[in-house]
Amino acid sequence: MRNIPLRSERGWLTGKANVCIAHSYQSHYTDIMKIVRAIMIGDVVGEPGLKALEDKLPKIIKDNAVDFTIVNGENTADGFGITETALKRMIACGVDVVTSGNHVWEKRDFWKILETDDNVLRPANYSGDTPGRGWMCIEKAGTSWVLINMQGRELMTPIDCPFHCFDNIFKSLDNLTSKNHDLLTTGGEILMQGIFPVIIVDFHAESSREKEALGYYLDGRAAVVAGTHTHVPTADERILPQGTAYITDLGMTGITNSVIGMDVTICLDRMRKQVLYRMEPAADPKDNESSAEVQGIIVEINAETGKALSIKRL
């Protein structure tokens, strides 16, 4: 496996050379179109969230004949950041790409993994000399997928503009496909040959307004735009007018008897006393069945047009 740069510069467009990976998987056909299914899972919170993912995700993938799986993993390490072990556990239970957000920088030891692992992304609109990469292209189920991770700016650290960031990535892809450019995997298989890929965006943002605005800005260009970060699933999943599946927030994977996956008592103390006690992932009472849930969406996509056909919450 090797990295194939789409551009030579290390600007905030990519951060690093993009990753092109090939997989073998059966896709779904009707009489008139090729349909692929993608699943996106909300922020995994701590050990309870990881355990829920391991217990439930393989069955969800199998039961729904899912072709591609994206999980936001930025809260897997005790609620803050990612570790190499947590990343391996997510990949082992069927995840194709792990996305992240502002908490990805919490574990400094993980920065080198961002540089070397082909399965994990950090937001693309950080500056170009930031560790890791913000998007990648993967071939699976006979389809070219482009995964883009971006971070919002309203009520968050004002990094580079996500709207301009997407435009630059999209322009790069459009230039390649219009020139019938081939991207090759290590084995030499053709990844893309003049075929526009299925584009999926994880937009890690606080503001619902910013998320919806980006959804409409990307409508017709991305197959899916899904928000993450707030850990609260929204009920606004829909297909936008030009064919993009949209939801403001996927929710979380973790203990539901909690405050956004965190211990209730600690969160109450923070709110009441305005003291920044360190939050910890919630835990179920001993000997009780876990209340952890896996929250997210399943989207059906026309692989020939890159437009969404349906979206439903888990």
Description of the structure:
This protein has 314 residues and is of the alpha/beta class. Helix content is 23%, strand content 28%. It has one domain: Purple Acid Phosphatase, chain A, domain 2 (4-Layer Sandwich), CATH 3.60.21.10. Strand 14 and strand 15 form a beta hairpin. The N terminus is likely disordered.
Kindly list the characteristics that best describe this protein.
314 residues; alpha/beta; Purple Acid Phosphatase, chain A, domain 2; eight-stranded mixed sheet; six-stranded mixed sheet; 6 helices; globular
Work out the strand percent: 25-35%
Low-pLDDT segments, ≥5 res:
1-26, 178-194
Using DSSP, what is the number of strands? 19
What strand order characterises the main sheet? 1-2-8-9-12-13-15-14
Structural class: alpha/beta
Could you report the average pLDDT, rounded to the nearest whole number? 84
What is the CA-atom radius of gyration, in angstroms? 19 Å
What is the CATH class designation?
A: Alpha Beta
Question: What is the succession of H and E elements?
Answer: EEEEEHEHEHEEHEEEHEEEEHEEE
> What is the CATH H-level superfamily?
Metallo-dependent phosphatases
How far from one another are the termini? 33 Å
CATH fold field value: Purple Acid Phosphatase, chain A, domain 2
- Report helical residue fraction: 10-25%
Q: Note the overall shape.
A: globular
CATH architecture name: 4-Layer Sandwich
Total domains: 1
Main β-sheet description? 8 strands, mixed
Helix count?
6
